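dude i think i finally got it to work??
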Amino acid sequence: MTRYLVQRLIGTIPVVLLVTFLVYGLMHLAPGDPASLLLPEDATPEDVAAIRQRWGLDQPFIIQYFYFVSNAVQGNLGRSFRFAQPVTELIATRLPATVELATFAILIALAIALPLGVLAGARPDSPIDNLGTTVGLFGISMPNFWFGIMLILIFAGTFHVLPSAGRSSYGIAGDPITGFYLVDSLVTGNWRALGDGIRHLILPAVTLGTALAGIQMRITRSAVLETSREDYVLTARAKGLRNRVILWRHVLRNAWIPIVTVVGLELGTLLSGSIIVETVFGWPGVGNLLITGITARDYPLVTGIVLMYTIAFVLINLVIDAIYAWADPRIRF
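look at this
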């Protein structure tokens, strides 16, 4: 297994390099000069030239990319043009908010999708199957930005029961310890901040989790339905075992592989796909930071964030591959 994981890690190096090269190249092809965008309107051509030389923008593209890769290998992603801070510090500051949002979104999705998917697959063409199909279709076909705006209009604009934006109310949050707002509130015993953080988290997490719940429910239903037709399940039924035992001991245990695969893929997608939701809800995560970097043509910041997303996606897939052997002992690396 160790040899397999090492081979996978080595194989991801060309993928990471290709992704960073494409992103870096696309940012350079986009219209707009970072120096001109960030300097005041009355800046002289000499000021623009000085800033371009200071940031290394006067160098050819391939030289700039080479410097970025050589520094990234050493853990240095450069300094942001827009914020004049190290990119690693900016990502480290914003990443806990994105991870917190993605974690709660996937928990909400699994709480909805797994029970509905299992019951729908075990009882095809039943009312619970029709309900699950409706939920799955709703989650898959509904745009995140539209659903988020609707939730804001209903729960924040009409009933005023939940906040519409941000991560916390002004003056309630304490000093950050880990960067994870809810964890810090638990550690310090600040129950008011904990409740406030959960209230701010509900709408964006539900918006993200609903789309995942639709996909996960359909996959779970299909996996359970397909496994229910296997010979060992028919044999268990012939022995007279109860349906509940057959479902949880024989069907679900053998249907884990596609379910775990989709959960892993969607967790990686949530980390990168929360960009729109973070923008809609003003959530101070990495996705919101990425939009700021793109607007300012901040090459180091955008490339550094995309590199982080790529590495996270690769590592999540490696973890999922390792879980396969635990979920199904028949699998060997």
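The first helix runs from residue 2 to 29.
im so relieved honestly
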